[in-house]
Each structure stands twice: as structure tokens, then as C-alpha cells.
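Hi support team,

I submitted a single chain yesterday and got back a structure, but I'm not sure I'm reading the C-alpha cell output correctly. Could someone confirm the output below corresponds to the sequence I sent? I've pasted both exactly as they appear in my results page.

Thanks,
R.
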Amino acid sequence: MDMTTEMLARPSALGAAETVRALWRLLAMKCPATAGHAARCAQHARALAEQLRLPPAEIEILGMAALLHDLGKIGVPDSVLQKPGPLTEVEWHLMRQHPVLSHSVLAGMDGFSDVLPLVRHHHEHFDGSGYPDGLSGEDIPIGSRIILVIDAFDAMTTDRPYREAMPVAIAAKELVRCSGSQFDARVVRAFLLILCGLGHSRPLVCSRPGGHPEPFSADGGGDSPVDVRTPEPAQVA
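Hi R., thanks for writing in. Yes, this is the structure output for that exact sequence:
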């Protein structure tokens, strides 16, 4: 019996915190890059939840969900996870199963009932175009809406097998561009505030490939600014 099977066979043997850590280590064994992404998402999701003034208990649940949101990728073939090029339609179908797989794994364990919907729905889009259930707007849990923004931002600003990392300012503009469609505009605005140190939550430290911090300013650091100080999210062409 391998470690995964043994853990699933006796889910109550560990406390919730120990189980979360053990599951994250399993993910790290499968794909270290995905586990690193999950750890960053958990840290940033907590900061964003604080900025949105969620209750402490909800922030704790969100932290667990963000750390485990990609757990289902342990069921995705390495050839798909690490493919150095665009995925085929069949491969995308496999990849899009990971929220449901994450949900299924955690559903068999004690202490994760509040985490389940956040994990399942972290790829739902605000306009209803996401997956797996096509939820929209306020029907998507706020924790899932937070994870979606953090997940996308981290994916854009880190190297992937098929492309180099995007500069932080460009990634921020992409979040703004997709506000109201893919992302909850209120969540994006809160994220941009803490990204540039204007919020009441602690500022985020974003790293470029190689671990070097990349600065981000309120004006986006370029000729076409992302103005996070206006009442509504900026519209970027």
C-alpha cells in the first residue's frame, strides 16, 4: 500500500492541519512546481482575504483550500502536466478534471466539508463561462473567486514549460482586462491594492524567475497604467 492509498484509507488518523501538510507533500512528490504554486497561492489568498475583511475562520478555511486546490493534479499524467507546448483538446479535458478530482479526494476525509466547495469551484468564472459546474456571480463562493484571481496571477508571473513568466505589471493589466468576465472585479481591485502596498493587508512580494523580487507600483510602472486608485477597475485596451 503506497502513502496515498494508506492516507485515504484512514482519513481520521491525522488532524486537519497534519492532513493538509501530508497532502501537500504528496503533491510535491508528484510535481514540485505545482506544489510551489499552491504554497504561494495559499499565502497570497490569505492576504487578499484579509484585505476583503473576511472573518478569521473563513481565512483559515481559504488557506487550506488554496493550498490544496490543485491536489487533483496528482491524477493528471505527467506528460500533460509538464508538456512543453499547447495542450490538445483531449489533454485539456484531462486537465479540467482536477477540481473535481481534488473535491473527490477531500470528500473522503474528515474535517474538509467547508473546504470542498472552494476547491471544486476555483475555476468557475464570474460570467458563468468556467468549469466544472458553470456557476456565475455570487453563486461562486467568495473563497473560490479569490483563489481564481491568485491562481491566474501566479500562473502568469512564473515560468511554465511552454512560456516564460509575464512581468507583474502586464499580469496585473490582464486581471483588470478580465474583471467582470473571468474575475470578480471587487476581488481584482482588492488584490491590486495589496499588490502595490496601498491596502491594509500586508504587501505581497512577487518573484520573477530565479527568485528576484519584482517591484510593482500603483501606476503599473509603464506607459499604460493600471490605476488602482479610481472608484472602478481601470479598463486596459
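A quick pointer for reading it: The domain at 15-213 is CATH 1.10.3210.10 (Hypothetical protein af1432). Let us know if anything else looks off.

Best,
Support desk
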